[in-house]
Amino acid sequence: MGESSLTSVDLLLRGHHKIVVICGSDQKLYSNNLKVNKTGVIVKAMNFKGYKMDGLGNDFLIIDQRQKTIALTTDQIKKLANRSNIGFDQLVYIEAGEHKEPNILFYNSDGGESAACGNGSRCVAYLLMKEKNLDQISIQTKSGILKSFNNGNRNITIDMGEPIFDWNKIPLEKKMDPSNIKITITDHGVFNGFSLSIGNPHIVFFQTVEKSKLKILGPLIEHHPYFPERCNVTFADIVDKQNIKIKVWERGAGMTKACGTAACATAIAAHQKQLADKLVHIHFEQGKLTIEWRSDNRIYMTGPVSDIQEINIEI
Questions:
Q1: Using an 8 Å Cβ cutoff, are 192 and 228 in contact?
Q2: How many angstroms separate the Cα of 9 from the Cα of each of 21, 79, 86, 164?
Q3: Chain-centre distance of CA 184, in angstroms?
Q4: Nearby residues of 239 by Cβ (< 8 Å), 6 or more positions away
Q5: Cys staple from 52: which of 74, 186, 229, 309, with CB 3.0 to 4.6 Å?
Q6: Shortest CA distance to 84 belongs to which of 107, 104, 102, 109?
Q7: pLDDT at residue 210 is higher than 50
Q8: CA distance 277 to 262
Q9: CA–CA–CA angle 291, 294, 300 (5° rounding)
Q10: Is the fold of 47-159+306-314 the same as that of 181-297?
Q11: Are 301 and 158 contacting, i.e. CB atoms less than 8 angstroms apart?
């Protein structure tokens, strides 16, 4: 058999041997001796444990790195996230952290890092509270220290911090009124949204949209020039001042069944527009999250998480 040119991380089977070959576009595997020329590296396949969890169908692969470091490449994250493989919306790493709080990192299914993930944070908090037999715990994320509470029956409350309205901290491309963002999408019209950050950038539109149309509008708005770090896109239907139904296109993940930070963003934007109370239920296909914007300006999110499924992963 001749040589095979590789441009990404590939798992190759040769007889009874499993080989991971990491190489660049100018490197080649020679199958007759299983060596890689130039700077290619051959290593053994990685086998490690992970956990699958979800919050209202918004699902995660959780990898505990407190004892052993598992560093996945962008390509590996994408492959594992594919629904024909393990499948997930976000990858979550648990690290030991420099202080007493464990450090939590989030990666979207496209391999890009995210500073915040509400449902992922609740899932990890539940896993750690169950491990340590605690009813509350704090975790460190890039958007700050988040305190979580176990209400019983896998119902978890998390303090998501304070909303951010400053245009340059969301961030937006230029100075503009975040509560009145007008976006024109060719062949689809003009959309008036409310932008803010819940540790990651969001824009919320208070109008009805079908899933088929969100699949078109979502990526166009996510990548709009107004958002230098891209954004999460939510379309919200107001039922009454205590209930809102939403559909979400997540930055770096696409259509998801639920999104915790989008629920927070919707609740805050709706209250600012006098469309909802400070305590509101945000409804998704598989259930609801309760969002409370308290007098101390902090956002509390409460909702169910799944049980913990331990899985074995091989790359």
A1: no
A2: 6, 10, 17, 39
A3: 27
A4: 245, 283
A5: 309
A6: 109
A7: yes
A8: 17
A9: 35
A10: yes
A11: yes
Residue 145, pLDDT score = 94
Q: Which CATH superfamily is domain 181-297 in?
A: Diaminopimelate Epimerase; Chain A, domain 1 (3.10.310.10)
What are the domain boundaries of the chain? 4-44, 47-159+306-314, 181-297
Element spanning 267, H or E: helix 260-272
Query: In which band, very low, low, confident or very high, does the pLDDT at 99 lie, cut at 50, 70 and 90?
Result: confident
Instruction: Quote the CA–CA distance of 291 and 157 in Å, as a whole number.
Output: 9
Considering the entire predicted model, what is its pTM?
Answer: 0.84
Task: Quick: pLDDT tens for 111-137.
Answer: 999 999 999 999 999 999 999 999 999
Residues 63 and 70 sit within 8 Å (Cβ to Cβ)? yes
Are the CB atoms for 282 and 295 separated by under 8 Å?
no
What is the distance, to the nearest Å, from the Cα of residue 99 to the centroid of all Cα atoms in its chain? 24
Q: What is the pLDDT of residues 145-182, one digit of tens each?
A: 999 999 999 999 999 999 999 999 999 999 999 999 99
In the predicted model, is pLDDT for residue 44 greater than 70?
Answer: no
Q: Which residues are known to be catalytic? A: 117, 259
Instruction: Please check the confidence at residue 310 and state whether its pLDDT lies above 70.
Output: yes
The pLDDT, as a whole number, for residue 270 is: 98
Tokens representing 111? 């391999």
Phi, psi of 255 (to 5 degrees): -65, 125
Which has the closest alpha carbon to 88: 51, 55, 60, 123? Answer: 60
Q: What sign does the CA torsion over 261, 264, 270, 273 have?
A: negative
CATH 3.10.310.10 fits 47-159+306-314, yes or no: yes
